Amino acid sequence: QVQLVESGGGLVQPGGSLRLSCAASKSISSIAVMEWYRQAPGKQRDLVARIRSDGSTNYAGFVKGRFTISRDNARSTVYLQMNSLKPEDTATYYCYAFGGSWGRGTQVTVSS
After folding, report:
1. Model confidence pLDDT, tens digit, residues 66-85
2. What is the CA radius of gyration of the chain?
């Protein structure tokens, strides 16, 4: 299984931006789907965004227009660009690769 490591989280003010990275231990070019999820304390883990090997994407309604998922197969990395952040975006963000691999997550806190 591929190992995934997320980074790029932190504390940001409302309206700010962050870019999360998900670095894989091996090539992701053959992985059909890569996804970002998030989980706030006491809540279920929700799908945020999905990107397929052909570059097509899907987004949860609560981030559409604000977040962008992308993948760089050469760097074996998936990104999540998050703009216009809101306090309700506060959560731990996880990367997932089809086949069952999860990262350990990176914390995003949106607060003034």
Report:
1. 999 999 999 999 999 999 99
2. 13
